[in-house]
Amino acid sequence: NGITGFFTLSFGEETTNMIAHDAPASGFGSVEEKLTRLSSIGSIKVTRDYSRTPVQNEEFNLAHGGTLVTAIGLTDLTSVFFVGDMVFIGGEQHIISSVATNSFVLSDPYNGPTVSGSVGTYVYKWAFGYEWTITFLSQVGDQASLTASPGKNWSGSNVKIDVSTKENGVSPIGGTFRLSYGGESTFPLLHDSKATVVKDALEALEAIGKVDVNRFENNNGHNYFVTFLTEIGNLDLISVHDSQITGPNAKVRAATIQDGSMPVDYGSKPIDSVSVISYTIGNLVNGKEYFVRVSSKNSEGFGGSTMAMPSPISPKEAPSAPTSVSIFPLSNSYLKVSWAVPASDGGSSITHYKVQWDIDVSYSNIETSGFEYVMPVNNGNGPHFCYNIPVDSSSASIGRYARVAAFNGFMWSEFKETSNDAVAQAMPPGEVQNIHAEGVSDTGILVTWSAPDASLCVYGGDGGSPITHFEVEWDKIDDFSTSSASTLSSLATSFLIGGKDTIAGSVSDILESGESYFVRVTAFNAFGAGPPTPFNKIVGPLVNHVPDSPVLLMHNINPLTATSLIVDWETPSMDGGSSIRNYVVEYDSSADFASPSSITIPMVNEKQAIVVEASDVILETQTIKATVAVTNEHQLVRSAVNEADEVQMITTTCDDVVAEVQTISLNAIDSNEEQHIVIAGHDIDEIQLVRSEEMRFR
Q1: How wide is the angle at C-alpha 46 spanned by C-alphas 40 and 50, nearest 5°?
Q2: Which pLDDT belongs to residue 142?
């Protein structure tokens, strides 16, 4: 019953090479491969299934989940089926395991619906061949039928090869259509008109100004997306006329993808006279941004619009004066002026502030002195601003007044003056900045800070005299009445209170484990102490932590060999209060370490023995002589009595000087050094991923 040999397929004037009787659908030697080599076939999709033939004049009953298939009629099934035959029931493929006169048994259960009664289901047998379904993907419309012909060694019992059309292709769309809007229609447009053609046709209608048209392909035609640029609001739908469109079920439809809406605060003004070339827009909201455009109209409709420049633009007025203006000494060479934003910006953001200062309260010297500074404002700055006024040492003792004005890009505000004058003078420093304290172990607190800052809009900086030192205080009580303190140099920006030495392992007893502490830092200069700056919360209870990250050295990872890398690091500055036991080195080919490999490197404490050996040890004897030269002190005391001077002599004496003798002995125990070198490594299997990809085109 088997089929052998080859066959060919013809399409148009071309014929394929020989195709095996059981060729696969795709791949090497497949029907798809043979057909696509024809120049006229285009892109296709091929599937393969078993060929089938129905059992004639018989229907069958069977139950869901069962294997017994029973004939309804009187056909002797032993003459129709044999053990091992392939049958198809309800779209399922089965193998027959046994056959009786009016029934047969399947090798696996039937999963379809139960069929019983006088009306049964059909059973199909394998026809010992195959059928290939070919779908034309790139050829549009009804295609000529393929022609199949027997080829080399084609043989078999009653073998046949046939081609039939399972589904006819649909012809493409054709013809023309028209669009209407506002009572006017466009000229006929081809079914595949370009977007620019549709755009020009719509803009030629009097009721339409400017539109934007984009074209996209759909299954057998095109979609045109029309965006109205000059018409505003929810507009009428474009009408279509498709009587001249050809093709199966060909239609042209219009639909609204997104309704237009009137902009908030939208307004318009028609100008009837062509001689008018300007217009004042009133009743606007101060400070609110508006866009303005102008378009022209003739008998054909509105043309494109021109956007006014600049856009957007808002109605403006002068801002109000800055608020909270004050002046105070910063050092013996600077005064600081500070202020806050105006209550009203006049409809536009403040772009500049102008600071003026003078020794005269009426500011009579401004025109000639140049005592003025204009400060630009960046977006996001504020609401407080300040400026440091330089003061010449020759006039530092003279008081100065200051005033500030604001500019919003349109007008300057009025000046706001300080209520008092200020005299430059040296002072104690300001508060230290950016103070932070955190527990780093159960016996240590790390405190960091930065020096007082003169650029802040409050009193700060060194007060006109260099910082001499910082004082760090800590106490269990927030009033620091029982505090301990440490004095640090003027360059210090951090201090570890207590803690554990990461290298030596020694632990300080300054702080108590489990306790909580308040911390503050004070800056000092030659004029005294600045205000103490406390950390904003209590630190503790003190407990041990995980260690800090190791410090990787510059160029810390380098190739060592063709298959290895070397990485270097330094011991973490803080071990968290507990000695470091090991390091973990992770490596991965991905930067996000999605599936890293790792190596654990234990900490091995070094043991060294020192042996000092010497033969004929001679103890060294050193003599130290302490001598002193004694000179008797002479003091002369003169008193006047009856014009006669009294002379008194005071003599100092001491015992005989005896030279002190001290003996210093040097000795050492000589022990040999023992060093152990252990070479350890982890055996990690290499995993390589090979990925194959197939690119398919339609």
Answers
A1: 135
A2: 80
CB 577 within 8 A of CB 440: yes
User: Hey, how many other C-beta atoms are within 10 angstroms of the C-beta on 12?
Assistant: 13
- Residues 646 and 18: their CA atoms lie apart, in Å, by 151
If you write DSSP's letter for every residue of 4-69 in order, what string do you get?
A: BSEEEEEETTEEPPPEETT--SSSTT-HHHHHHTSTTT-SEEEEEEEEEEEPTT--EEB-TT--EE
In 64-146, at which residue ranges do the beta strands (DSSP E only) sit? 68-71, 86-89, 92-99, 103-106, 123-136
- Write the CB contacts of 337 (distance below 8 Å, at least 6 apart in sequence): 325, 326, 327, 355, 357, 386, 387, 389, 402, 404, 418
Least Cα distance to 584 among 603, 599, 572 occurs for: 599
Place of tokens 């409050």: 458
Helix (H) or strand (E) holding 440: strand 433-441
pTM over 0.85: no
| Residues linked to residue 355 through DSSP beta bridges, in sequence order | 373, 404
The Cα 38–Cα 19 span in angstroms is 14
Looking only at the bridges linking them, the beta strands covering 401-407 and 123-136 are unpaired
- Contact between 17 and 37 under an 8 Å Cβ cutoff? The reply is yes
Looking only at the bridges linking them, the beta strands covering 372-376 and 352-358 are antiparallel
Q: What is the pLDDT of residues 542-563, one digit of tens each?
A: 998 888 888 776 566 777 787 8
- For β-strands 211-217 and 222-228, DSSP reports them as antiparallel
Spatial contact of 47 and 25, defined as CB atoms under 8 Å apart: yes
Spatial strand order in the sheet of 323-329: 323-329, 334-340, 384-390
Return the higher-pLDDT residue of 654 and 265: 265
Alpha carbons 60 and 68: distance in angstroms, whole number: 10
| Contact predicate 516/540, CB 8 Å | yes
Measure the CA–CA gap between 176 and 246, rounded to whole angstroms: 8
Cis bond before residue 312 (omega within 30° of 0): yes
Cβ–Cβ < 8 Å for 378, 385: no
Q: What pLDDT is recorded for position 62? A: 95
Q: Is residue 572 reached through a cis peptide bond, with omega within 30 degrees of 0 on the bond before it?
A: no
Phi and psi at 567, nearest 5°, equal -125, 140
Find out whether the peptide bond into 390 is cis, omega within 30 degrees of 0. no
The per-residue pLDDT for 618 is 63
Is residue 398 within 8 A of residue 423, CB to CB? The reply is yes
Give the whole-angstrom CA distance, residue 523 versus residue 460: 11
